Amino acid sequence: MNQSLTDVDSHGEHHADHSHDSRLQHHFATFEQQFDAAKLGMWLFLGTEILMFGGLFVGFALQQAAHPEAFVAAHHHLDKKMGALNTVVLLLSSFTMVMAVHKAKQAKRAAMTAYLLVTLACAGTFMVVKFFEYQHKFHEGLLPGAFYKVQHIGEVPNQFIFFSFYFMMTGLHGIHVLIGMILITWLVIKGRTGAFDGKWYTPVDLVGLYWHLVDLIWIYLFPLLYLIT
Amino acid sequence: MATHTAHSEHLDTSHAHTHAANDDGHEHGGPKVYAAVLAALLLLTVITVGASYIDFGGGMTNVVIAMFIASIKGSLVALFFMHLRWDKPMSAIVFCVSLFFLALFLIGCYTDLATREPAEPLNIKTKHAPGGQFGPPAPGAAGAPAGQPAPGAAAPAGTPQAAPAKH
């Protein structure tokens, strides 16, 4: 009797005949409203991400315009095949991520977990390929700024500028991939207990948006860094 | 689009929800659409790699083509994978506003670069000016090294002379 009275007090009498879902925070009227609010916040965050990477893209564009011959010479040190492989891997992971969101909505726990794990595997593959690329550049002394080792006498000067941008942009992108891997792992763990269904799958959807943005940034990074001739 | 409408109507009757409440709870797109988008993205990746082996003449043409293809790919990801095609307009507004300000940033910087001498980072030793001259071309600078036997010795001597001439 006491229990039911306090329940009515804290949630209002309209909730007395519903079983209250604790995933709906009390300051939102509906799940839909809660989801829209969370999604708006996520998009605002993605806006700041676009502008953060945007600064690097603009810097890259300006320095490339100022030193076109240095950028062309430097980009030949990059392996197009490795870059293309990573592009395919990341596009594939974006597909599996959107499928995971799709399955989370349908409360298909096993399928969602499977798609999330494939996404995680793709992200891991991306980082491994990136590791070998970095290792090769460290070995050759193709490093940013003052750490750049001149490859041979009479080479096109100022190639270190390209590698400053290369490491800053792919490094920041790589950090985003690592954060994405942590978030996806968290989703897998949370999803195992059946936390997500059609009513509430906000974390899956928002991590999905984040992951697609990481993919989106790579879509521009790949041709800029690897394919410019 | 037709299948999407039919699908959503079917769900409307079976769940007896209002349309507004139904919008976010149920799936748009679906595996077939996502797979088609993935196929398009992979195809465009092949095209952009292929295009990079062809010289379209003029340094910027290849860049413009690569960026154009990247923008198609980016739009596909944003519209379908990020659900902007089916979302309420607020997400797309936030996305487009951030792109708009990025465009302003880029256009402003490019205009600046195109209309005056580039500012070089201080750690650049070799200027990229034609003829290997140090500093901006000054009227007296071209004549000074001509009388000197070694070009290396002429450069430090020519620079202090050229610098006051600018002011």
Task: Describe the structure in your own words.
Chain A is mostly helical. Chain A has one domain (34-227): Four Helix Bundle (Hemerythrin (Met), subunit A), CATH 1.20.120.80. Chain A is built from 7 helices and no strands. Chain A is elongated and about 75 Å long. The termini of chain A are far apart. Chain B is flat. The longest helix of chain B has 27 residues, at 89-115. Chain B has 167 residues and is an all-alpha fold. Among the domains of chain B are: 2-86, no CATH class; 88-117. Chain B is built from 6 helices and no strands. At the A-B interface, α2, α3, α4 and α7 of A face α2, α3, α4 and α5 of B.
| Largest interface, C-beta within 8 A | A-B, 63 and 60 residues
Tally of helical segments of chain A: 7
Tell me roughly what share of residues is in helical segments of chain A: over 70%
Distance between the termini of chain B: 68 Å
Multimerization status: heterodimer
Whole-number total of structural domains of chain A: 1
Structural class of chain A: mainly alpha
CATH architecture of chain A: Up-down Bundle
Strand tally of chain A: 0
Averaged pLDDT of chain B, please? 70
Q: Globular, elongated, flat, extended or rod-shaped: what is the shape of chain A?
A: elongated
> What is the fold named in CATH at topology level of chain A?
Four Helix Bundle (Hemerythrin (Met), subunit A)
Q: Rg of chain A from C-alpha positions?
A: 23 Å
Portion in beta strands of chain A: under 5%
User: What is Rg of chain B?
Assistant: 29 Å
How much helicity do the residues of chain B have? 55-70%
How many E-type strands of chain B? 0
Order of helices and strands of chain A: HHHHHHH
Mean pLDDT of chain A: 89
**CATH level 1 name of chain A:** Mainly Alpha
Largest sheet, strands/sense/barrel of chain A: none
